[in-house]
Amino acid sequence: MKILVANIGSTSFKYSLFDMDTEVVLARGRVERIGEALSPCTVESGGTRYSREVCVKDHAVAVRQCLDQLTSLETGILRSVDEISAIGFKAVHAAGISGVQFVDASLLDAMEEFNNLLPAHNPPYIKSMRNISERLPDIPLIAAFETDFHKTIPPRNRYYGVPFEWAERYDVIRYGFHGASHRYISTRVSQIFNRQDLRIISMHLGGSSSLCAINSGRSVAASMGTSPQTGLFHGNRCGDFDPFVIPYLMRKLSKSQEEVLKILATQSGLLGLSGVGADLRDVMNASSKGNERAKLAVETLVGYIRLYLGGYLVELGGADVLVFTGGIGENNVEIREMIVANLDSLGIILDQEKNKQSSGKESSIHAEGSPTQIWIVPTNEEIIVARQCVEKLKENVKSLPSV
């Protein structure tokens, strides 16, 4: 069974093609600058890279271009499109819907209802899914929602201190996101230790970041709330923020609510605090050269992470494993060091040399004798989505009436 997993950006389409009989990646590719005169299209398979530039006006065309490359005589990756059993999407959020679902009109409507909560996520996915469904009707589309892994969070960690009716009628609760990543970390760490009873704190740190407390494979707390704008601040999103400040800013800035919310969603986080950019590498480089705002941004981000880390240590009654994952978590030596600095009394002791030598690869970086182990585990959200697609397809076959 072959599954194509799609990762949709506003002007890009990235994908991985899996042979799920062996869970081998047959190809990875991307289409960039969608909507421009020429879009670079690349695919890598078996160590060979194939590239071309064509006009790609929307995401449905991007998918068709991807399939054309995968089935071309030049690449020889697929004999025909019919070999693809489904296209899977790492969907984020929808009103009243979670889990793994076939994409249909009602699901897209439910996603659209949450557009205001996820302005950077839902609109491009909805548009792309609709176009792909219309133009490629013979390929099933499956949405694996990020919220699904967090369905085990207990009510005490899920409800806000607001009128109860808001939760019951309007779904205003803490959902948690980055579910595919945290699920992968939970699964992989359990494999490493050959144990299912681990207390894990998964730290997905990247352009978008979140922490998750995991107990025996179950999410019990997550830093993001009703929307992915919350929790830690992100590359250009504000994270936790006092809602009573919004009307105050509207008056002071002479801006509408929508304009203020757009600033919080696109011009805040590392970008807004540092004034340098949304990429932590650029901010840290500026900080090393004496930029005080950049230094403040780095220290504040680390402070937020440590606050959630401390809370989750209390929630779990300690941790067996701390895991760094995501682009920042996997690769940034200094940030990892700053996050666990001076936590020896809590049983979290970093080995400085291991930390420096281990970026980008699965490895332990704790000191010998550290009660809590510290690991770098590169995440693999795509394989989680592919596995969920396979299960959904099998479930659908089982539900068909026998002849």
Please name the defining characteristics of this protein:
403 residues, alpha/beta, Nucleotidyltransferase, domain 5, 2 domains, 8-stranded mixed beta sheet, 6-stranded mixed beta sheet, 14 helices, 14 strands, 38% helix, 19% strand
Question: In words, what does this structure look like?
Answer:
The chain is α/β, with parallel strands linked by helices and 403 residues long. The protein has two domains: 144 residues, ATPase, nucleotide binding domain (Nucleotidyltransferase, domain 5, 2-Layer Sandwich), CATH 3.30.420.40; 189 residues, ATPase, nucleotide binding domain (Nucleotidyltransferase, domain 5, 2-Layer Sandwich). Helix content is 38%, strand content 19%. The chain has 14 helices and 14 strands. The strands form two sheets. Strands 5-4-3-2-1-6-8-7 form an eight-stranded mixed beta sheet, sandwiched between helices. Strands 11-10-9-12-14-13 form a six-stranded mixed beta sheet, sandwiched between helices. Strand 9 and strand 10 form a beta hairpin. The longest helix has 25 residues. It is globular. It starts with a strand and ends with a helix.
The biggest sheet, with number of strands, parallel, antiparallel or mixed sense and barrel status, is: 8 strands, mixed
Helical content band: 25-40%
How far the N terminus sits from the C terminus, by CA atoms, comes to 24 Å
Mind telling me the CATH superfamily name of the largest domain? ATPase, nucleotide binding domain
User: What's the SSE pattern?
Assistant: EEEEEHEEHHEHHEEEHHHHHEHHHEEH
- What fraction of residues sit in β-strands? 15-25%
Query: Can you identify the CATH class of the largest domain?
Result: Alpha Beta
Number of strands: 14
Arithmetic mean of pLDDT: 94
Shape annotation: globular
Query: Strand order of the main beta sheet, please?
Result: 5-4-3-2-1-6-8-7
Number of helices, where a helix is a run of at least 4 consecutive DSSP H or I residues: 14
| CATH topology annotation of the largest domain | Nucleotidyltransferase, domain 5
The domain tally reads: 2
Q: Report Rg.
A: 22 Å
Q: Which structural class matches the secondary elements?
A: alpha/beta
